[in-house]
Each structure stands twice: as structure tokens, then as C-alpha cells.
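Posting for a labmate who doesn't have an account.
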Amino acid sequence: MQKVLFLIILALALPMAAFADGGVDFTNAGGTLTGTTSGLSLTGSTLIGVSGFNGGGLITGNNLGSLGFTTGALLTGSLKDGGTFAGGGSFTVAGNGTNGVPSGVLFQGTFSGPVTWTLVTLANGTHNYTLTGVLAGTLSSGFSTNGVTIQLTINTGKGFFNGSATISSGDTNVVVPEPSSLTLLGGGMLGLAGLLRRRLSLERLNIS
């Protein structure tokens, strides 16, 4: 009977393990966003929040690691007035071992489609810029992911983006597992269910 109980516990644990990385959120602040018609690049941005990594809760700190990226070349519009950049490039989130965040690359990916560069003119005549892009990549756990990132620049006053700006804050959310992982999970659960039925049948025969 103990073996049966162990198998039941294992069956309940498998879905939790498969969805442990169901939603991972990375928050960053600071860093320098530079841009030309060849693309945008963020360097020196600090990771200050991680939530849901390996199924864990929210971890915050002044410096948990780094976040950086590059995009493809400008497709439409302009650096000054907003537009779109090509996908591709790179997107990397790394931890430094602080407050329980693992040391090393946490997420590695690319922009899977065009990146939107938006100029927002506020009521007082000053300007903000936001960058939004869809991501595809892999977490350090090995799960393939899809997600989105939104990066907000420091207000540029009544001037415009001139090739360099400081990032105010950014948020990146990735979701797993991919459909193929769900298929494997479903197959494994069906096999385990059959094993459980056989074990329970044997237990009943032994009892009778």
C-alpha cells in the first residue's frame, strides 16, 4: 500500500513540476538604451525583481543580476518619432546569486517579431519612450518560453531621443511550458494512471 501511496503522490507532483515555470516575471531598472538605424541596445540595466522562477515566489533586491538586449534594424518610422525595429537580436537575463536568485543566465532568447518603439507626449509637452517586444527563448531550467517585455525610458523633457536614454523601469514576463511539453506530460500521466490501476487491482486481490 505504501508503494501505491508513493505513486499517487508522484502523480500529483508531476503537474506541479511541469508548470513550476508557468509564469516567470523579471523586473529591471536603470541602464543605458542606445540606438541607431541599425538597432536598439540596452546595457547596464540591473535586475531588481524575480517572481515565479522555478516555481518560487517574489524575490526583490537592489542588485539581483542584469538584463540586456539588442534588436534588429529600424524597419519603419524614426528614432525620434517612434517606429518599429526588426526582431532577432538577443535578450539575456542573468542572476548573480543574491537573495536566492541563481547565479548565471536565467533566460536567453531573441525577439520573435518586430519591436515597437513608441513616443508618448505628455500633457506638459515632455516625452517618454516605450519599447515593447515579443520574446522566444529558454529558461535555465531548459523550458522553451514565449513572453513579452516592456521597457520605459526616463522622461526626455521637451527634447527627443537623440541616440541615448536611461531606462526608468522594465518588466519582462515569460510563460511555459510549450505545447510539446504538455503533450509529453499528458502521455506520461496516462502511463502512470495505467500503472496505478494495476497496482490497486493487485492490492484488492491480496486483501480479498
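Reply:
Got it, the C-alpha cells are right above this. The radius of gyration is 23 Å.
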